């Protein structure tokens, strides 16, 4: 019996790379699942999966946390065990890292990108670009509450 998946049908995690890359994807799924392709050579900066604890986001549909940074989570530290980054661990009520903060339902697409039309990351960036509408935090929060499982 082989323990490896030989096709996507054999994989038991959410294969989020198959989802539509819309605003809901970036708020609720982006970087919330560990990369199933971690052993394969690929561009981790462009990958929608998490590769380490600094890259990982808690799914806001499963964990409730605010949109402000955790005072214990240090952006300069490389965390190898999640609870070493914050003593509250997954139950912390604050954001762990910049990705949790920028892609939080109350923050996503609520601030303008300073690079404007010259930005190279318009599709996946959490900031607003010229052609995109601004999301209102109150509406975002209502959507967040409705989507919470």
Describe the structure.
It contains 4 helices and no strands. The protein has 149 residues and is mainly alpha-helical.
Q: Can you count the helices? A: 4
Instruction: State the low-pLDDT regions, or none.
Output: none
Gyration radius, to the nearest Å? 16 Å
> How many DSSP E strands?
0
Outline = globular
Features:
149 residues; mainly alpha; globular
What would a concise description of this structure say?
With 149 residues, the chain is mostly helical. The protein has four helices and no strands.
Walk me through the topology.
Blueprint (H helix, E strand, L loop, with lengths): L22 H6 L53 H4 L12 H5 L34 H11 L2
């Amino acid at each position: 019996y082989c323990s490896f998946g030989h096709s996507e049908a054999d994989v038991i995690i959410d294969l989020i790379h198959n989802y539509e890359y819309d605003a809901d994807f970036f708020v609720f799924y982006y970087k919330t699942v560990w990369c199933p392709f971690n052993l394969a050579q690929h561009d981790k900066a462009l990958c929608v999966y998490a590769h380490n604890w600094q890259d990982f986001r808690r799914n806001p549909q499963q964990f409730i946390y605010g949109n402000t940074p955790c005072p214990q989570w240090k952006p300069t530290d490389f965390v190898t065990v999640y609870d070493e980054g914050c003593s509250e661990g997954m139950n912390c009520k604050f954001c762990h890292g910049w990705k949790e903060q920028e892609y939080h339902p109350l923050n996503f697409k609520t601030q303008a990108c300073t690079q404007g039309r010259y930005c190279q990351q318009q599709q996946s960036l959490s900031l607003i670009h010229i052609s995109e509408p601004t999301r209102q935090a109150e509406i975002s929060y209502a959507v967040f509450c409705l989507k919470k499982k």
